[in-house]
Amino acid sequence: MSRQNTSPARKLVLIVDDDPINRQLLGFIVSSDYDVQYACNGQEALDILNCQDRRVSLVLLD
Asked: Which one of 52, 54, 57, 61 is separated from 9 by 20 to 30 angstroms, measured CA to CA?
């Protein structure tokens, strides 16, 4: 399940982790400075990266 919170002026971070608590905590930490998108596994992350119309600045993996 992915969720995206976007603003055109901010950089986009993709957080990939199979543990929903870890995704939420890390997203909470970085969301004040970055737009955040989530993926729960590697395949979902690759799908997001392939379909993303916006450049992902950073991918954080567990």
From this structure: 61
